[in-house]
Design goal:
The chain is an alpha/beta fold and about 375 residues long. The chain has 14 helices and ten strands. Helix 3 packs across helix 4, helix 5 packs parallel to helix 6 and helix 6 packs antiparallel against helix 7. The chain binds nicotinamide-adenine-dinucleotide and zinc ion.
């Protein structure tokens, strides 16, 4: 028998531009991408109403033809049917491997666009233009994408880095405040896992964030990207350090699932999940700095829940936890806070999970 090794040296680089008046810049950069004269713009009906025409106008000015793909709004459209419709339209309009796909929208559109770009003709250049705060600080950074399957959320997807992430902060002016709050929860998490000064900055800037002071929001997005970038650059394929980005998420996913993804939004569930993680760390004596009240204050200011809804049955929560894809063969792995800006991995054996979890529910 003989063996041979084939080693590849493909390196990926995702350039991120952040500011205002970004649409012009995107058109200029798209033109430079493999001399593209044809691209596709994927968006949804809500975002299209505000931002599709301005983007198309910039592309047209540069002589770039655009295939428009406008989907209905909503998480339920992050589906195989939508993916199939996108691929059909790319095919019908004759896009080739040099034609960029621009995803203009929130996390749903970024995820769908990322997946479609990664598989159509084995890969189109992907440009992400996140328009929700959550997509700006989270979904558009790191190269993960996914669609939901009938069997569960985010079950099919790829790792595929965009060539460009272009963030125009000024689009946040049309984002509903509730959506801004959901994105902010991930930003708070960034502070909690690696930057205490950033957490404190958010805590003292609540009013300016609510008032959508653009320069402050830009500062916040810059800081969050920096933190997410540092975790994902070290662990592109999510095998190690990237797990810390899951602070509040294992608890949060159980809450979301137990409420059938209707009772609680992801952002609300992760906010509660972070409070539960603080409680759990305190109970096992590992919490050196307790910032529960600061977190509770920010969540309350943004109208996010700080107590688990009474109608969510604790046993049902435990059931959903046991289906979490992060579950290990010998128990569960949680990311818990140690101090502001520092987290650690905590394993809980199967026979201890009920006590551990029910105690954490008491926030
Ligand atoms: N790939 C990743 O790493 C990653 C990370 C986190 C979340 N996600 C995914 O992201 C999705 C959630 O993203 P989301 O919270 O942005 O949801 P979303 O895409 O549904 O957007 C939220 C709502 O805001 C609207 N909207 C977006 N931008 C707007 C704007 N500028 N003005 C007015 N309305 C606007 C949307 O139309 C939608 O109604 C989930 O599917 C989640 O799984 C992916
Ligand atoms: Zn999240």
């Amino acid at each position: 028998m003989e063996t041979q090794k084939l080693t590849f040296t493909r390196t990926t680089c995702n350039e991120i531009v952040l500011g205002t008046d970004i649409f012009k810049e995107v058109a200029a950069r798209v033109l430079r991408l493999r001399a593209a004269r044809h691209c596709a713009v994927l968006t949804n009906e809500t975002v299209a109403k505000w931002y599709l025409q301005p983007l198309l106008a910039e592309l047209r000015t540069r002589g770039i033809k655009a295939t428009e793909i406008v989907l209905p709004d909503g998480e339920k459209h992050k589906s195989l049917d939508s993916l199939s419709a996108i691929l059909d339209q790319l095919c019908a309009d004759g896009l080739d491997r040099n034609c960029p796909l621009i995803a203009l929208g929130g996390g749903v559109i970024c995820d769908l666009g990322g997946f479609a770009a990664s598989v159509f003709k084995r890969g189109l250049p992907l440009v992400l233009m996140p328009t929700s705060l959550l997509a700006m600080v989270d979904a558009s950074i790191g190269g993960k994408n996914a669609i939901n399957l009938p069997g569960g959320k985010n079950l099919a997807g790829t790792f595929y880095q965009p060539v460009l992430t272009a963030i125009d902060v000024s689009v946040l002016r049309t984002l509903p405040l509730s959506q801004l709050a959901y994105g902010l929860v991930e930003a708070i998490k960034h502070g909690a896992i690696s930057d205490s000064a950033y957490f404190r900055f958010i805590h003292k800037s609540v009013d300016s964030i609510k008032a959508k002071h653009m320069s402050l929001l830009q500062r916040l997005i810059r800081r969050s990207i920096h933190i997410k970038k540092s975790f994902v650059a070290e662990d592109e394929l999510d095998q190690g350090i990237r797990a810390h980005l899951n602070l509040g998420h294992t608890f949060g996913h159980a809450l979301e699932a137990a409420g059938n993804y209707i009772r609680l939004h992801h952002g609300e569930a992760v906010g509660l999940g972070m409070l539960m993680a603080l409680k759990a760390a305190r109970t096992i004596g590992k919490l050196e700095e307790d910032y529960t009240e600061h977190l509770r204050h920010i969540l309350t200011e943004f109208g996010l829940p700080t107590k688990i809804p009474v109608e969510l049955d604790k046993k049902e929560l435990l059931n959903t936890l046991s289906q979490d894809k992060k579950k290990l063969h010998d128990g569960y792995r949680f990311i818990l806070p140690q101090s502001l800006g520092k987290t650690f991995v905590h394993k809980v054996a199967q026979d201890k999970i009920e006590d551990f979890f029910l105690n954490a529910c008491d926030i």
